[in-house]
Write a structure and sequence with these properties.
CATH superfamily of the largest domain: HAD superfamily/HAD-like
Radius of gyration: 18 Å
CATH architecture of the largest domain: 3-Layer(aba) Sandwich
Structural class: alpha/beta
Order of helices and strands: EEHHHHHEHEHEHHEHEH
CATH topology of the largest domain: Rossmann fold
Shape: elongated
C-alpha cells in the first residue's frame, strides 16, 4: 500500500444522506401503487438505470415515470417530490473540510441529472471536491470498471495511492479489484478509525 494521495467519496448515504422512501410515500398518495411498490420500482427499474447513465432525457424520464406509476400529478410537482429526498450529514461535511488541501478529493456517484442539479444548489460542500464524477455524465454506473478508471485517471496517481469510501460493500469490492484501497462507510466514528489505519489524520 502506497501513501494515500487521493480520497474518493461516494455521495449518497456517505457525503449526503437520502431515502427513496420519502419520495415513494408522497407519490403513493398520487398513485394506485403503495409506498413499497413504488420504492421497489425506483430501485429496480431499467428506466431509472437509463436515466442515471444519461440514456434518457430528464423530461422524458419524468413523463415515463408518471405513466408507469399512473400518477395524477403535474410535471413540476413530480420533479419536486423526486428531488426532495436528501438531507445533510454534518459530521462528514466537517471531515471533508479538514481533508481539503491535504489530499486530492474526488466525488464518485451513481446519480441522475435532476438529483445533481438539486444538490448543487443546496449543498455547498460539493464545492470542496477537486473532481466530481457522475454516472449520468460518463455513461456508466458503479460497479462498471470504466467509472472507477475515470477516477484513477483524474486522481493523477496510482490505484494503490487512492482510498475509496462507499456505503455499499459490493461497490467497495469492485474498487478493490482495480487495486484501489477501499472500505465501507458505517458512520463517522468508524470512518475516522479506518482513515487512521491508512495514515490519515481526521481529527
Amino acid at each position: 500500500m502506497g501513501k494515500i494521495k487521493t480520497i474518493i467519496f461516494d455521495l449518497g448515504n456517505v457525503l449526503i444522506k437520502f431515502d427513496h422512501t420519502i419520495a415513494a410515500r408522497r407519490l403513493s398518495k398520487k398513485s394506485p401503487y403503495n409506498t413499497e411498490e413504488i420504492r421497489d420500482f425506483i430501485f429496480d427499474s431499467n428506466i431509472v438505470a437509463r436515466y442515471e447513465t444519461g440514456r434518457i432525457k430528464t423530461r422524458d424520464f419524468f413523463l415515463k415515470l408518471k405513466s408507469l406509476l399512473k400518477l395524477d400529478i403535474s410535471y413540476p410537482e413530480l420533479r419536486k417530490i423526486w428531488n426532495e429526498i436528501f438531507y445533510a450529514n454534518p459530521p462528514v461535511e466537517k471531515l471533508i473540510k479538514k481533508l481539503k488541501g491535504k489530499y486530492r478529493l474526488i466525488l464518485l456517484s451513481n446519480i441522475n441529472y435532476s438529483h445533481f442539479v438539486y444538490l448543487k444548489k443546496r449543498f455547498p460542500i460539493l464545492k470542496e471536491f477537486d473532481h466530481i464524477i457522475l454516472s449520468y455524465r460518463v455513461g456508466f454506473r458503479k460497479p462498471h470498471p470504466l467509472i472507477y478508471r475515470k477516477a484513477i485517471e483524474l486522481s493523477g496517481c496510482l490505484p494503490q495511492e487512492i482510498l475509496y469510501i462507499d456505503d455499499r460493500e459490493d461497490l467497495v469490492k469492485s474498487a478493490q479489484e482495480l487495486w484501489i484501497n477501499a472500505f465501507s462507510f458505517k458512520g463517522i466514528s468508524d470512518l475516522k478509525k479506518n482513515l487512521e489505519k491508512f495514515g490519515i489524520d481526521s481529527l
